[in-house]
Amino acid sequence: MTERARIDHDGTAIDAGAELDPVHPVRPPAPRFKPGGLTTAEVAERVARGDVNDVPVRSSRSTTDIVRGNVFTRFNAIIGVLWVVMLCVAPIQDSLFGFVIIANTGIGIIQELRAKKTLDGLAVIGEAKPSVRRDGRTAEISTSEIVLGDVIELGPGDKVVVDGSVGEADGLEIDESLLTGEADPVLKKPGDQVMSGSFVVAGGGAFTATKVGREAYAAQLAEEASRFTLVHSELRSGISTILKYVTWMMIPTSIGLIISQLVVKENNLNDAIARTVGGIVPMIPEGLVLLTSVAFAIGVIRLGRKQCLVQELPAIEGLARVDVVCLDKTGTLTEGGMDVTELRPLGGAEPAYVKKVLGALGESDPRPNASLQAIIDAYPDSAEWRCTESLPFSSARKYSGASFSEGDGENNTWLLGAPDVLLPAGDPALEEINDLNEQGLRVLLLARSARELDDEAVATGVRPTALVVLEQRLRPDAADTLRYFEDQNVKAKVISGDNAISVGAVAGKLGLPGAQNTVDARKLPAEQAEMAEVLDGNSVFGRVTPQQKRDMVGALQSRGHTVAMTGDGVNDVLALKDADIGVSMGSGSEATRAVAQIVLLNNSFSTLPSVVAEGRRVIGNITRVATLFLTKTVYSVLLAILVVCSQVEYPFLPRHLTLLSTLTIGIPAFFLALAPNKERAKPHFVKRVMRYAIPGGVIAATATFVTYLIARHHYTGADALPAETSAATLTLFLTSMWVLAIIARPYTWWRVALVGAMGGAFLIVLVVPWLQDFFQLKLVGATMPWTAVAVAAAASTLIEFTFRWVDRKFPA
């Protein structure tokens, strides 16, 4: 191996541990590079001084944030004030809505804390641990344990976790595109700076940490990007939009209701306040945000049990909306390891000599990839050759190389890589290689170059020496997963840097539709629209460069596709970052895990359907229950408006609407929100919810008010109002139950049982004397109750036909 360079990049012999002058607090020069790393004493000194990489990398919100987010909401504040008022002026029955809110908030906090525990536990398992030299030895430590002056080793796929200065470089190429936007990797030499957030694409080396913790700007960006979030999703932004409009509707309606009730009930202030609060509280869809948070949180817990780390919660929703999934072959469809199945010498080369060359090439790379590792396992190094120069493998150039002094005075330069890259088109060896590729085998070419390794044209005019045939291990679950995506109308695109024919053969073995039509990415058009057209028409692409993977994701997105990208190699990072959803394997490179929204810690591709299913469950079910909540909001606002315009007493006390909300919305919504749901996620959440909620709420409010007006003419005397309220409550309950019955479709045994149980609970309230008194609900006579039922039946029929008409007229 070449001797690695070493520099003192500050040009001085100042010790990195020099203390700051308390009078003139000037930071001493940057730490110098120490090949053996810091000593234990120096590490302790820096820890005591606070020069530690203390940026908290959190996978979830803090406990304080969770409690604050669930307790201190706009609607909780409104309900809290109304609850205090009701406790002062009315019986406890009319304050039940406050206890319901406390219970709901408690459930939300508990579920999110459970999700936090799951996320934090998985984050520790999946945390990348950089290799750091201390006391002359290399050990893996947590990122948060790095101190100023630590010597950190780098290899392909490693993420630079702190800012620093290169001390050793062996063909070290770093991609800084995520920081600078520059697409080409940068060759780093001793003395060059490296920034946290960049990652190694080829070669290796070591650097000294010169900025740790919050001093590194890129580290601050990484901290912000990695924080758990419940925002930036169509579902939650749609709910926020709805709540904003609800707030604006509530303000004038509530003011009008307060004035009208004080005027109508001028002789009984407490009763006027109680009925006013009874009109305001149901306008608030207080449980909607709670159920959304709970659904997401339980989704995280369910996926966590399957060793799936969701680094950003909206990723659950996002993957459910995906209609194209781009798969990297190596590590995704195939397992990471490979086996050498055959060695074919070319041009009369001696097999024993070829094995020596391969063994030496394996020894020349301190961090071999899967292909080279298979060669190392098959042909361990036995020749005492001296490596004078090495060229690490790069996904962009598709080959690696090394120059050796072979002990007999002869110096040779060898290259190992893709045959169709190293050989010119039409070379006789390529025909033999195509036959092997068609069997799904991976073939590497060992070739001798007459040029120096640092010559840009080193691969030109090489002499083929041997073919190394590798067999890739197919993931046993890959075929079933591809079949699942096909059944769900999600198009799978295999995008690989390997030979197109070989990739197509592997995809064909797994039953991917269109695998027989493979495309060599070197022939892809550069213009986005033309590239998108080719991508839409084909499924398998080989010889794709890392930049092309990124371009292909962008081209698919330009066609309106929601794109997920899976991968585990450093060549997938750019595409993972740009995709709508990035999915990394737990055994993948540190860089891929850092940019992905979802990490499959068990390295099982078969976990993806679970993530898709969880997202569909969340979105589909929240859409269902949102219709219930907003139907209530619409009928509450309209009832209040009708009462204000008619100058009559508001028909309900808070206890009545608490009962109705609990039975027709609260309890059913909780079960429906957590039920299985395989319906493909659809866009336009607000439109899809409101197209049902508005007509459903309008019909329910109208039917209820009609019953109330009829009852006002039917009943007379001092006790007429409770009888009128009971009749109106019956109509509203039956109408709301029909909306619930529609939302619960398609029926299963438990859905029918759920609807039946809610109906039975209301019937019990109507027939049990102490419950009648508690809720002030008692049906008087037979004429008015049956009239209420008839009105509710007519309203339910109208709702049924209206919902069907909406489905046809305004399909979502």
Automatic annotation (TrEMBL):
Keywords: Membrane, Translocase, Transmembrane, Transmembrane helix. The keyword Transmembrane helix applies. Coiled coil: none annotated. InterPro entries: ATPase_P-typ_cyto_dom_N, ATPase_P-typ_P_site, ATPase_P-typ_TM_dom_sf, ATPase_P-typ_transduc_dom_A_sf, ATPase_P-type_domA, HAD-like_sf, HAD_sf, P_typ_ATPase. It comes from the Bacteria. The keyword Plastid does not apply. CDD domains: P-type_ATPase. It is a multi-pass membrane protein. The chain crosses the membrane at residues 71-90, 96-113, 245-264, 284-303, 625-644, 656-677, 689-711, 723-743, 750-771, 783-803. It is found in: Cell membrane. Residues 131-224 form the P-type ATPase A domain. This is Magnesium-transporting ATPase.
